[in-house]
Amino acid sequence: MATTTLLCYPKPIFEQNHSTPTLHKPKIPQKTRHLTRKVSSRRLIWNQETVVGLVGSGLVLALVDPALASELPPLLLGSSLQLSEPANALSLPTWAIHVSSVVEWITAMALVWQYGEKSGFESWKGLSWGMVPLLGGAFCACTWHFFYNSESLEVLVALQAALTVIGNATMCFAAFRICNLSDKRSQKL
């Protein structure tokens, strides 16, 4: 229900004031300017009901023991579907950390690549390539957790460890290349 409300909520309207320049700007009292800024920024960024609903739902789900979560009323969970998960299932906050870490890593890779392109320092692209094995390790961990740490998928744990070692080595090599090329450029100046 809260997800549907969030997805169906209209996007904020960004108004632009296209006025012709005048010689005299009307004086707006300081108090009115402050209130206008406060109201418009609140309207553009937050919807109080949505924020309260999300924070409240997050607190309830984070504080309730996973075994008791199936006993919560269906209205609170937003569905009448009763789920039973094993005791080793990850909690919602833990999943949020896993997924956000992967998204942050992908974003960092893209930003490093863009920096390499725009600055002309091609060695930075090598750092982005050096980050790929660590991303593979993160996908291994998320996949293993998604299937409730199944014993049949324990090969993913070993693969994650190998990719972590390889990724650390490739990033170290890429950082060494960046350092060497930076030293050479500074000596030319």
UniProtKB/TrEMBL annotation:
Gene name of this polypeptide: LOC18606386
Q: Can the keyword Amino-acid biosynthesis be found in this entry's annotation?
A: no
Instruction: Give UniProt keywords alphabetically.
Output: Membrane, Transmembrane, Transmembrane helix
User: What name appears for this protein in its UniProt entry?
Assistant: Ycf49-like protein isoform X1
Against InterPro entries, the record matches this protein to:
Uncharacterised_Ycf49 (IPR019634)
Looking at the UniProt entry, the stretches that span the membrane are 44-64, 95-115, 127-147, 159-179
